[in-house]
Each structure stands twice: as structure tokens, then as C-alpha cells.
Amino acid sequence: MLLAIAAIIVGLALLVWSADRFVDGAAATANHLGMPALLIGMVIIGFGTSAPEMVVSALASMQGNPGLALGNAYGSNITNIALILGITALLAPIAVASQVLKREAPMLIAITLLAAWPLIDGVITTLEAWVLLAIFASYLGWSIYQGMTGSTDTLSDDFDNEIKEATMPIGRAVTWLIIGLILLIISSRILVWGAVDIATALGVSDLVIGLTVVAVGTSLPELASAIAAVRKNEHDLALGNVIGSNMFNTLAVVGIAGAITPISLEPLVLSRDWLMMTVLTFMLLIFAFRPNSRPNRINRVHGGIFVACYVGYTIYVLQTGFIA
């Protein structure tokens, strides 16, 4: 048990550090290749910030723990909105000006609603997983188009500032890209082993560990970047990272895990976890993009509501997560 706890702590710490190096290396490499800032932000950084969830869920699925994979994806989505945006908004209200984000938010709603489809029959089949990946490919194509044509958007300015701060020689960028990816895989294996061992010892399902401990851990890069973005007055970047990450998690992370092995679902996934994820996504849309609110912003009251939702949800998950 103590060894498993140590594995989770070490795994999470290494995961967060390696993900940060991976994102920096990938963004700097793409910048050297002449990619537009918005394209780097929406695609390269989007992949990078979701890399922990992708690698952890893929490894969990390969090792026969698909519940951990699904819990990590949905738990990260819930954590991103309720905890990360909640804490960030409590520190400083998040103003929203980007037209790209105003187009992406309804897409996130649609994708979140679509996520219920493979859950209804209690199993995410390989075919359903590939459908999710196909939708993700379409979304990725749209993101590339936006990145190539949306250079005047405020989000592009935020990404441009971030990329300038992470400038490094091409050799160092590629080195960090490779090292970050290798350490991502190693740390994910350590984390998955520790999480499964603790779940077994405590008598809870691996889904619950994925929804809570692992989800919070893999979402730490988003928390750090959101707080840093708001402090630098890059509000659209803080919200954009969360919206993009949730898109990646719902489609790519679940899709990859399900493509590796079908995911048998616990009954509460639809009525508890997907429902909470959906409610929070609608709340995000309402709070951030109210039609009669100028400027659009997620204020401290909204942040407090989000955090309260996260606390209540986590308590409920822990109460209902023990294996009979």
C-alpha cells in the first residue's frame, strides 16, 4: 500500500514535469517550422496538455483496466471545469473575448451529449471507439483550419505570447520533445500500477480512482497553465486550454482506450459521471457566454459554484464507489 502511494506521488510528479517539457518542446519545434501561433496553440499544445490523459488511459486499457481509462477521461473533464476553472475564477475573474472559443463551446456541448451514445448499452465497443476517433479527426481538421485562418483572434495573441516565452533552439526543442514523451510513458506506467494497487487495497473500483486521484493528477498541467494565463491577462488562453482538453479527452482519450479494448461500464457512469460532466459543460457555456453580458466573464461567484460542485461530486463518487 505504501509503495503504491509512493508510486502515485512519484508518477504524478514525473507525469506533470514530463508533460510540461513535452509541450514546450513540441511548441518550440512547431514554431521553428513556421506554424501560426493559433495553430500551434489549438493543435500542438492541445495534444500536449492532453498527453497525460492519453498515455495513462492507453496504458490502463492495455493492462486490462479500462475503467481507469474512462474514469481518467471523464474525471479530467469534470476536474477541468469544476476545479481548475473554479479555482482560477476565484483567484481572478476570467474574461472571454475570443470568437474561436465562442464557436468551440457549442461544439463541446454537442460532443459531450454525443458521448452518451456509446454509454447507453453499458459497453464502449471497438466500433464505437473508432467512431469517436473519426469525429476527433474531423474536429482536428477544423482546428487546423481555424489555426490557419484565425490569426486576428484574441486567442492567437495569447498563444503568440506564450510561444515567445518558450522560445529555444531547435536542437533543445527536439530533445525536450523526445525526453518528455519517453518520461510520459514511464511515469504513466508507474501511475497506473499505483492507482490499480490502491483501488484493490481500498476495495474501490479503478473507475473511482480514475475519476478522482488520477484525473486530478493528469489535470495539474491545465491548472498551472490556467492560473499563469490569468495572471498574465491571457484569459482566453485559460478557457481555451480547458475547452480543448475536454474535446480531446471525450473523443481521443476515450476513443484510444476503447479501440485498444472494449470498455465495460459500471451502471453509474451514465447517470453519475456523464451527467455531471454534461451539467458542468452547460454551466460553463451559460456562465462564459451569456448573450446579454458584456464583457463575457466567469466571475468569482461562478468559480465558487464550480468548486462546490466538484466537492459535492467527489464526495458522492467516494460514497458510491466501493465494490460490494
Structural write-up:
Residues 4-144, 174-318 form the Sodium/calcium exchanger membrane region domain. One of its GO terms (biological process) is intracellular calcium ion homeostasis. Keywords: Membrane, Transmembrane, Transmembrane helix. The protein is mainly alpha-helical and 324 residues long. The protein has one domain: NCX, central ion-binding region (A middle domain of Talin 1, Up-down Bundle). The chain is 81% helix and 3% strand. The chain is built from 11 helices and 4 strands. The strands form 2 sheets. The chain has a two-stranded antiparallel ribbon. Strands 2-3 form a two-stranded antiparallel ribbon. Helix 2 (37-62) packs across helix 6. The longest helix has 33 residues, at 170-202. It is globular. The model has no long low-confidence stretch (mean pLDDT 81).
Quick overview:
The protein has helices at 2-32, 37-62, 66-91, 99-114, 126-149, 154-165, 170-202, 206-231, 235-260, 268-288, 300-320, and strands at residues 94-96, 123-124, 263-264, 296-298. With 324 residues, it is mainly alpha-helical. Helix 1 runs antiparallel to helix 2 (37-62), helix 3 (66-91) runs parallel beside helix 10 and helix 10 packs antiparallel against helix 11.
